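sorry for the late reply, my laptop died twice this morning and i had to redo everyting from scratch. anyway the thing you sent over, i finally got around to it. pasting the sequence first so we're on the same page, its 212 residues, then the predicted structure underneath. double check i copied it right bc i was rushing
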Amino acid sequence: MANRISTDGRGPGAPSRAPLSRTSGRAGGRPGGWPGLAAAGWGLLFAVPSLVWATGSSFGARTTVAPSLVKLAEDRVAWFVAVLWLTGLLKILGAVVGIGLTRRRGRWTGRLLALSGAGAAVLLGWHGAAFVVHGTLVETGARTVPPDLAGLTRWYLFLWGPWFVAGGLAFAAATLRYVRRLDPRAGTRRPAALGASGAALLSLLSTVTGIG
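ok and here's the structure:
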C-alpha cells in the first residue's frame, strides 16, 4: 500500500536513515588512548624531583644521584640550577605532548605531536637501556666503578633505568597508536620517523662523546 507505515516508525516518504558507522562523529576521537595518559603522568611525576632540587632541596638526591651533581645543586651553581629548572619544564612539556596524543588534532599540530612523541620515546628508551646495561656490567663484575659509586649504580640499574624505559615505552605506544589511527593524509608518519631518527642520532653522539 502506498501509505503504508515504514518499519522504523516514520511516515511514508520519510528519508531512509543510513546506519551510523563506528567512526562517525569521532572527529575528536582518542587515537592515543591510555598510553598518552600514561606518558603524561610519567612526565608530571618525573618533573617533581627536578623542580624540588631546583629550589635547593636535596631530598632523595643524595642516595640516587651522582654526588657531583648533588654538590652542584647544594652549592646553587647558577648554570646547574638553570638546567634543573629547564629539565623540569621539559618534563612538563612532555606531559603536554602525552595529553596531546590522546585526541585527534589538527594536521600541523598532529605532525608536531608525532615528531615530539617519537623523539621522546627514543631518547628515553635509549638512556634507560644504557643505565640498565651499565648497571648490569658493574653488578656482574665486567666493569668497575669507584667504591663510593657502587651503591649509586644500583639505583640507576633498578630505578632510573627502568623508569626511563617505561617512559619511552609509554611515548612509543601513544605515538604509534596516534599515527596509525589518523587519516593517512595527515602525514604524521614522516614526522614521527624524523623525530625517532633524530633522537637516535643525538643519543648515539651522546654515548660516543660521553656528553649528556
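Residues 147-181 form the longest helix (35 residues).
thats about all i looked at so far, will dig more tmrw
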